[in-house]
Amino acid sequence: MEPSLAQLHLPRRTLPLDRRALAICGLALVVALAAALVAQALGALIALCTHLAWYGRFSLEHVEAWANQRGAWTLVIPVLGAVVVGVMARFGSRAIRGHGIPEAMEQVLVNESRIPPRMAWLKPLSSAIAIGTGGPFGAEGPIIATGGALGSLLGQLRHTTAQERKILLASGAAAGMAATFGTPVAAVLIAVELLLFEFRARSIIPVALATSVATAVRYAFGGDGPAFPMPALAPPSGWALALYVCIGAVAGVASVGVTRLVYAIEDLFERLPIHWMWWPALGAVVVGVAGLIEPRALGVGYGNITDILAGNLPLAVLASVVLFKFVAWAIYLGSGTSGGTLAPLFTFGGGLGFALGTALAVALPAAGVDPRVAALVGMAAIFAGASRAFLTSVVFAFETTQQPMGLLPLLGGCAAAYLVSLVAMRHSIMTEKIARRGVRVPQDYAADPLDQLHVGASMTRSPVTLRAGLTAAAARAWLASGAPGTGHQGFPVVEEDGSVLGVLTQREILEVPQERAETVLRELVAGPPALVHPGHTLREAADLMTERGVGRLPVVEEGTVGPVVGIVTSSDLLAAHRRRLREQHQPAAPLRWRRAG
Prior knowledge:
- This protein has 22 helices and six strands.
- By secondary structure, the protein is mainly alpha-helical.
- The protein has three domains: 19-220, Clc chloride channel (Orthogonal Bundle), CATH 1.10.3080; 238-436, Orthogonal Bundle (Clc chloride channel); 449-470 and 486-505 and 520-583, CBS-domain (Roll), CATH 3.10.580.
- A three-stranded antiparallel sheet has the order 1-6-5. A three-stranded mixed sheet has the order 2-3-4.
- Helix 1 runs parallel beside helix 8 and helix 5 (140-157) runs antiparallel to helix 6 (162-181).
- The relative contact order is 0.11.
C-alpha cells in the first residue's frame, strides 16, 4: 500500500520563533518581576543582618559593616555567621556553598535546568547572613543563583522542555543581576556567556525582556543612577589606550593567579580531618583578623569600588584594602561559604589598575594615563580573565559607571585579559569546580555546519533502489552477485510508479528466514517511510535520523512520495564536519603577487 503524504515522516522545519516562544516570553516577564523584587529583598536582608550583627539594631537602611568598630567582637561575628551558614548547608542544601554561578551552570548542563525549589530561599538567606556578618563578598552571585532558581521553579511547575527551562533560568538570573546593578545589557550578555551557551532569538528575546523589566523595578525603587558613579572621563590618547591594554594584560595575569589560588585553598580545606560544615567557621577566623586590621575588608564593599574609581583612596589605604580583602575573600570562599565574586574581583582589579595607572602617569606624563580609567580597566579586565565573560565585563563596567569615554579602554583591556586567561588557564573561576566533576562546559558558540548546508547539495544522486515486488530470495541473490550497487548498506524500496515505501538494509534482507524467502520486499518494510526534501537542511535530516533511529533517508521532491532523486546518509553528515575541520585547520597557500610585465 502506497503511503500518503500525511503519513510520511518528514523533518520538522527549524523556525527562528514559534508561538511557544510567546508563552515563554510571558513566563520570563513573570520571573523577571519576581527576581527583581527578590533582589531588592536580598539587599534589604543584607542590610538587616549587617545592622543586627554590627550595630545591634533593627534597620533596613544600607550601611557598611566596617563603619562601626566592634573591637574583639570583630573576630567573633564572622565566625558566628559562618557557623549558621555551615549548618544551613549541612541540613538544608550543600548547593548553597560557593558563589552561585557555577552551581547554576551545572544545573543547566547536567540536570536539564532543574534547580531544587528550596534554593530559592536558602541561597539568599545564607548569603545575607554570610555577607551581613562581615563576609567580603558581593551580592551578585547569590542573586543570580536565586533568580535562576525562581526561573527553574516556574519552568518545573509548567509543562516545559529542558530548553525552555534553561531560558527561564537564564531570564531569572539575568533579571536578578539587572535589578541589583541596573545593567540590562550586561545581564543579557552574562546569560549568553555563562548560562545559555548559545545566541538564538528564542532565548535572547525572553532574557532581554526580563532584564528590561527588572531594571524598571530597580528604577522604581529609586536606583536610576550608576551603581559606581565616577567623575567624567576625557577621551584617551593613542599612547594611553595602548597602556590601558597593557594594564588589562597584567590584570589577566592576576586573574589567573587569583583563580588558581582560590582552588588551591579549596583543595587544602578538602584535606582537613573535620566535617565540611565547620570549614566556613575556620575561614571566618581569617575574615575577623583581616577586619580587625583593615575594617574596609569587611562586607560587600561597593563603596570601596566607588572610592577607587573616583581616586579617593590614598595608595597606602588602597593597598591595605586590596591585600586584606583579597586574603579574607580567597580563604573564606575556598572554605565553602556562600557569597559572590564580582565585587571582590572588582576591588582587586580596580586597586591594581589604579596603582599601575598612577605609576605610569608619573613615569610617562606625556602619555596622558588617567589612574581612574586605569582602575576601571583593571576591575573589568580581572573579571574578564577570571570568568571568561569577556563582553559581559566590558558592558558591565560601562553600564555601572555610565562613562562612554571608558568604553574603548575597556574593550582593549578586557580583550588583553581574556587572551592571557585563555592561553594560561584551561578553566575559569566559574568552570573549574564543575569541570573537576567531569562536566564539559562549552566555550565557543559557532554556527552549526549542518544547518548551513541543504540536503540537495550533499545527497548522493541516482541511488540504487529495489523494486517492492522483488522477493527476499531474489534480493539476496542479487547482493551475492557482486553487481554494481551491491556494496551499499541500504536501499530505498520503491513501487512501480516510483513511490517510496521505505528503506531496507543489507542486514535486514540477509537475515530473512529461509521459510520467508519468497516474501516480497514491500511486506518487509516497516512504514510509513522517513523522507527528506532537497530543501531541508542537513541539521533537519540529522534530527529525523535520530528520531527514527535510521542511518539514511531517501530524498524526494517536496509534495511527492517519489520518485527517489537521491539519498542522504550519516556519512554525508560527517562530510559536512570534514569541511568544517578543513576550513579550521588547513591553511591555504599564501597569495603571491607577480610583477606586471
